[in-house]
Amino acid sequence: MARFFLFFLIMTSNFYAVAQELCTDYVKCRDQFLKTALEISSVQVKSHPISKSDGELFVDEALISFGSKKLVVVVSGTHGVEGFVGSYVQSALLKKIAKEKTYQNHDFLFVHALNPWGFKHRRRVTENNVDLNRNFLNPDEFSHKKNQGYSQLNEFLSPQDEASSTGWSFVQFSFSALLKIAKYGMDSLRQSIVSGQYEFPQGIFYGGASPEPQQALLGKILFETFKRYDRILFIDLHTGYGAKGVLHLFPSVPDAKAKSRIEEVFAGWPITYGHQKDFYEVSGAVTDWVYGQVPPEKYFVPMVFEYGTMDSQKTMGSVQSLYRMRGENQMHWRGAASKNDEEKIKKDFFEMFAPQDQEWNAKVLEQTFKVFDKTLTLF
Asked: Using the 8-state DSSP alphabet, how is residue 252 labeled?
């Protein structure tokens, strides 16, 4: 018993040595990330200004080089409000890299806060209301993208009155949503809403009319670096969708070659593809765009880590998530019915993507470390 207790203390002390508090402020998250990165002697850090709409904001990169020909890329904050958990995970991984020799068989590139404006303002989108993970298209693709399913739902998804957070408003929304589920089916309705739309600039999941500046910046950060490496694992961190407390491996798969490599590198872990029941596919995803830019001779593996928060793969979880998404967007454009409504809408929206729950946070890191520990041996 004494030996077991000692082993438990050692294991938990190692875990909490890399775990940190989940920060709730963009500046503090950025400071924590940079401080943790700079503690590694083999790191190169660069900061790129990306937005000046309300003061200069930055996308930061940290390249950690041990002389490997294998590179692991970890991106956070593609959806701004999801950057709090993404930053938390990145900082914890940096601590692991500094301590554990097995991690030092690879080089790492961390891209912190791809959407710093959304990060700072706790919005999912950029200052132009653009969902970055629907925006990574070629310039000539935007005008041809049509989402007829979303068009039929836009009036429901973009109310023109002030946003309310009362119990009655949720009951009304739920009743309408359930009628639409009965009419269209849950899977087709989910796909219509979340896959991305390009016609309603004040709507949700708006992919924009042209590439946001992050596309050119990410290309600048990545593609010169990629030239040095034979094998590249690219991970984009997200939160929100899926079973609460579960890390979903949720790749967008552009072709059979990518699928084969994904299943080779992530062997032993459940992989959820967008076409499967209860999940969805998107247009304009970051991982798809990067995959399309990488020379075919490179061994490139794209992956999305999605940390579930609200059981949104289930019907009522989806309804609750959509209610919060719609309410936050409605409030941005139309205002809130009262100060109490405003505070509750902001709180619920933030909690959907950055749970203030130590047990949830611990599960996030535990699963992340397990996936990394095994994946790095296979990659």
From this structure: -
What would the two tokens of residue 314 be?
Answer: 């289930």
Contacts of 103 (CB under 8 A, 6+ apart): 96, 97, 372, 376
47: which residues sit within 8 A by CB, 6+ positions away?
58, 59, 60, 61
Whole-number Cα distances in Å, 66 to 23, 101, 102, 232:
29, 11, 11, 15
Which amino acid, residue 198? Answer: Y
Cα(142)–Cα(146) distance, integer angstroms: 9
d(CA 285, CA 198): 14
For domain 43-119+129-137+206-309+355-378, give the CATH number. Answer: 3.40.630.10
State the Cα–Cα distance between residues 301 and 261, nearest whole angstrom: 6
Cα gap 14→208, rounded to integer Å: 44
Judge contact between 235 and 247, C-beta under 8 A.
Answer: no
Rounded distance, CA 191 to CA 181, Å?
Answer: 12
Cα 197–chain centre separation: 18
CA atoms within 13 A on the CB side of 14: 12
Q: How far apart are CA 81 and CA 325, in angstroms?
A: 12
Query: Which residue ranges make up each domain of the chain?
Result: 43-119+129-137+206-309+355-378, 148-194+315-350
Residue 67: phi and psi, rounded to 5, are: 85, 15
Full pLDDT tens readout for the chain, 379 residues: 444 333 333 344 444 444 567 999 999 999 999 999 999 989 999 999 987 777 789 999 999 999 999 999 999 999 999 999 999 999 999 999 999 988 999 999 999 999 999 999 999 999 999 999 999 999 999 999 999 999 999 999 999 999 999 999 999 999 999 999 999 998 889 889 999 999 999 999 999 999 999 999 999 999 999 999 999 999 999 999 999 999 999 998 878 999 999 999 999 999 988 777 667 789 999 999 999 999 999 999 999 999 999 999 899 999 999 999 999 999 999 999 999 999 999 999 999 999 999 999 999 999 999 999 999 999 9
Would the pTM of this model clear 0.85, i.e. be above it?
A: yes
Determine how many CB atoms are found less than 10 A away from the CB of residue 269: 15
